[in-house]
Amino acid sequence: MKRSKKRKTSTKSPHSNYKLGCILTIIVLIPVLYGIYLYCQQQPKVIQQESKQQIINNSYQDLDKEGLELPISLTPRQEQIIHHTGYTVSYNKDLRLPNWVSYELTRKESQGKEKRNDRFIVDPLVNGPIATNADYTRSGFDKGHMAPAADMKWSPIVMKESFYFSNVCPQHPQLNRRGWKNLEEKIRDWAIADSAIIIICGPIVEKNAKTIGKNKIAIPKQFFKVVLSPFAKPMRAIGFIFNNAQALNPLSTYVVTVDSVEQLTGMDFFAPLPDEVENKIEAYANYREWPE
């Protein structure tokens, strides 16, 4: 009697199922693992960028504020450094002018209420000759503040100091009352927006410059101003150069890099900053990136 043949079942072995599951798992995991790899590669860069930014933003807090406010002279010049309550001045008795004036302006200080006194007086700390009111009489020039009185409304003492002749230069009336004044007002806006601003400014004087008055006050050819916003993210700096003539154009037309001002003045600004930070912010100037 013939026995009927048993049909073979097509059941797969457990080993085959395991192998197939492993292959499917690997296929699914490949894009996931690749994504994790890309994330891990990017994360150190983000952390590094954040760390660099933190270093930049902390640079001002970690440094001596006074050091940032004091430029380093790269060319010999006569000077007497005087520290007043509201500003520091490098006074040049040969020119009867400041080489530079520097100060920090905070948000709170920019909103002071002290009234302007308009009484220009001799700086009692100056050693040597200095200008008087008579030197400016009928000279055709304004007594132009370097540290403006409107930035010194936070104290009667600093308001008085702002009218020292060590803080004053002969300025064309349409510079003092227009472009220079407009920049002073804009900087107060920046101080309010950024919480604090460092300002360094002064005259650029040619050799054998013309003079005014009996005390022979040198007439500057140009004026410079450099501004550092240490708490901005990222930290930024900007420079301005004005001819000692009427200045009626928009402020953006007078913008230059801090590096350019350093070349013109023979000074090194904001030297205590880390070189990487200083080199970056001083080589770049974009007026549009500052608060309106």
Supply the key terms.
single chain, 292 residues, alpha+beta, Extracellular Endonuclease, Chain A, two-stranded antiparallel ribbon, 13 strands, 21% strand
Give the tally of β-strands: 13
Give the total of domains: 1
User: Which class do the helix and strand fractions yield?
Assistant: alpha+beta
Which CATH first-tier class would you pick? Alpha Beta
User: What is the percent of helical residues?
Assistant: 25-40%
Mean pLDDT: 88
Shape: elongated
Order of helices and strands: HHEEEEHHEHEHEEEEEEHEH
* Biggest sheet record: 7 strands, antiparallel
* Helix count from the secondary structure assignment: 8
Oligomer: single chain
What distance lies between the first and last C-alpha atoms, to the nearest angstrom?
A: 106 Å
Strand order, biggest sheet? 2-3-4-7-10-11-12
Instruction: Tell me the fraction of residues in β-strands, as a range.
Output: 15-25%
Q: What's the CATH H-level superfamily name?
A: Extracellular Endonuclease, subunit A
